[in-house]
Amino acid sequence: MTQLESILKQKQSYSKLDVFKEELQHYWGKLLDALFYKPWYWFKVRFIPKHRYHILDLTKGGNGYQHGWYDTDTRMLQACFLLLVEYVECEKPFELLDWNADEKHKEVAAEINDLYNWWKTGRAAKHAALVKEWDSLPPEETSRFVPVEDGGFTIHIPDSHRALNRKEDELVEEDDRNLQRLIKIRGFLWT
Hints:
Layout: H1 3-12, H2 16-47, H3 72-90, H4 93-96, H5 103-135, E1 144-147, E2 153-156, H6 159-184
């Protein structure tokens, strides 16, 4: 007997009544899903705040983000690390998953912890210190337009501003490096 003949013989063992019962169960399940579960789910994800998974509130992530306009680069960084914070704090992966299963998972777990701690404490402290330095500059040390002989202007930037601009550039580079690290491990961020 060929494989095709054995499959056909198995198919013939089903009665039309059995097939009808299976189809009825399938469509009954779909009907119940459409009538009860989907409307409840639709309502829940739109109106119950803890179930609004499709919306990111960037002000929850800390790290200085307030209400109002921010450029896309800032919002993108905040959104990615807010998702990491929600993953660690809400999904509790270190309680649910075995990160010691193999060497790769151990490395990723260390990376998750490192990025999480950098975002929550290290980055916040560095950026707060930079803001404090900017705020502590005396008013006479602000950038200003200085007239030149031909009737035009040039911008005078004090050395203290140049130093703070360099610090700010270093922090942006650190943000970029850590964002790239996060993207590399995103495939492991599930429970």
